[in-house]
Write a structure and sequence with these properties.
By secondary structure, this protein is an all-alpha fold. It is built from 18 helices and no strands.
């Protein structure tokens, strides 16, 4: 996969892609509603509630409802694990440490072998978030009280999110998939035109392609798409990725008209898959190089879309729920051991120093526990960069804007402005969206420490220190570690924390 250049990252940050502005304002409205309810009823975890909106408020109704339904068993499993640890080892720190070692090792191992690692990823994030409380609170009932408030917070965030979607009109899953087809088609056309003109080629959004394929797969399982439509979606996405790869792999030079013909072919391909049958026919490439192969790929895709049995564009083999070599390949156990050592090392440092504010070190270990080293480092950079930028935003708002307001309306206005910046980044491409989540969380942790005004900025200092410690622990634990062969292809992690 070609690494994105600085120009591509800047385009991801500032480009007004279709629906990005509407999704940003939708997020702002939902966050303001959640904050208003939580401040009115003086609910705890004031900074967490608005952040959860970023998780609930997906880009279409189907994904939002899917996340809400999935979080119910995730919260139940997390509460059960935490209650079990509290019941067994509340007064025995050594036994609690043994249990944490077993829980995190087992969680990382399951994340590594399951076809859907997010089923374990989310509970492990919640456990990492609450584990520090065992050393902070003197009574088990306080843990149960916090878990009860988490369920209440879940209900408030889900209600406000769905109300916002109903009021503003969120695209359906079909409309979202169609928008992704158009966006990726335009990107491939831009790549082909850049190849024809000899300019620098934009990076193709492989992660966006993967997310579109996952969305089509979910819609097929939910019977929103028919089997034929699901196969056609696979054909379209595989074709877009194939043409982009041909453009990137071809050497500069040759007739410019060849790649211009491919660019025009992409426009025809898009018109055909969107149902505009009056699109013109394909041109021919002058030479028999990659451009001619790309044109043939487009033609074969259109001819094979209506025939699901076509062996060229048939669906890939279904993967099992568990990797075939789950208990024979030592890579799984090695990965779990390294990630567990980093997480438990952060836990011991936090406990021995009684520095509870740096508990983000454990969460950083969990959310960046990716098999691919490049992806792991990229997510670490996005997490740290987003936290730094969000912290600076929060400090600036706290020092210069908060003293100028004396009512809840002014506070909500500041909250809405910071949310708009974070939501705009979060609604960008997958190369930068995770940074938007971190911007939002850091900003909320400063601005919304409690229902009343605070002057303590230690929270952002502790959060940044915790993130740095978590990144350092993971870098040390995986030093010299190369991904060993695994039969199951790894998917890029998309569940934020």
């Amino acid at each position: 996969m070609e690494r994105a250049s600085m120009q591509d990252r800047l385009r991801d940050l500032f480009e007004a892609s279709p629906g990005r502005l509407a999704a940003t304002w939708r997020t702002v409205l939902a966050v303001v509603l959640v904050a208003l309810v939580m401040i009115t009823f003086r609910m705890p975890f004031l900074a967490v509630g608005p952040y959860l909106v970023f998780i609930f408020l997906q880009r279409n109704l189907f994904l939002s409802r899917f996340i809400a339904i999935l979080l119910v068993p995730i919260l139940a499993l997390s509460c059960f694990i935490l209650y079990l640890v509290a019941a067994i080892a509340w007064d025995h720190a050594w036994l609690r440490l043994v249990l944490w070692i077993g829980i995190f090792w087992g969680g990382f191992f399951l994340m590594h072998i399951l076809a859907e690692p997010r089923l374990i990823f989310a509970p492990l994030c919640i456990v990492a978030l609450v584990s520090y409380a065992f050393d902070q609170f003197p009574y088990p009932n306080m843990i149960l009280d916090h878990l009860g408030w988490i369920w209440a917070l879940f209900g408030v965030c889900a209600t406000c999110t769905f109300l916002t979607q109903w009021l503003t009109g969120v695209p359906t899953a079909r409309e979202h998939l169609q928008q992704e087809f158009q966006r990726l088609s335009h990107l491939v056309e831009e790549i082909c035109r850049a190849r024809a003109s000899g300019c620098r080629l934009p990076a193709f959004d492989h992660e966006g392609l993967h997310e579109a394929r996952e969305l089509a797969e979910k819609l097929g399982k939910a019977q929103i798409l028919s089997p034929t439509q699901s196969v056609n979606c696979d054909v379209v996405l595989e074709t877009l990725g194939g043409v982009a790869e041909l453009a990137h792999s071809s050497s500069p030079g040759g007739p410019a008209s060849d790649w211009m013909a491919v660019a025009e072919g992409m426009r025809i391909f898009e018109a055909r898959i969107l149902g505009r049958s009056n699109a013109p026919g394909f041109s021919k490439a002058e030479s028999q190089g990659p451009a001619a192969l790309a044109l043939d790929t487009l033609k074969q895709a259109l001819s094979g879309m209506s025939r699901p049995g076509n062996p060229i564009f048939s669906k890939p083999d279904e993967k099992g729920l568990v990797a075939a070599d789950a208990f024979t390949n030592p890579a799984h156990a090695e990965f779990a051991t390294r990630a567990m050592c980093a997480t438990i090392g952060c836990y011991l440092l936090m406990s021995l120093t009684s520095w509870d504010g740096i508990h983000t070190c454990m969460i950083t270990c969990v959310v960046t526990a990716l098999v691919d080293q490049v992806e792991r480092h990229r997510k670490q950079r996005l997490r740290l960069g987003g936290a730094l930028f969000g912290g600076l935003m929060g400090v600036a708002a706290f020092v210069y804007l908060v003293p100028l307001v004396d009512g809840i309306i002014g506070l909500l206005a500041i909250l809405a402005a910071g949310t708009a910046v974070a939501a705009w980044v979060a609604q960008g491409s997958t190369r930068v969206s995770y940074a938007g989540l971190q911007i939002a969380l850091a900003f909320y942790m400063i601005l919304l420490q409690s229902p009343h005004a605070e002057t303590n900025l230690d929270v952002i200092r502790d959060r940044l220190v915790g993130i740095l410690l978590g990144i350092a622990a993971m870098r040390i634990a995986f030093a010299g570690f190369q991904t060993l062969p695994i039969t199951k292809p790894r998917r890029p992690e998309t569940v934020p924390a």
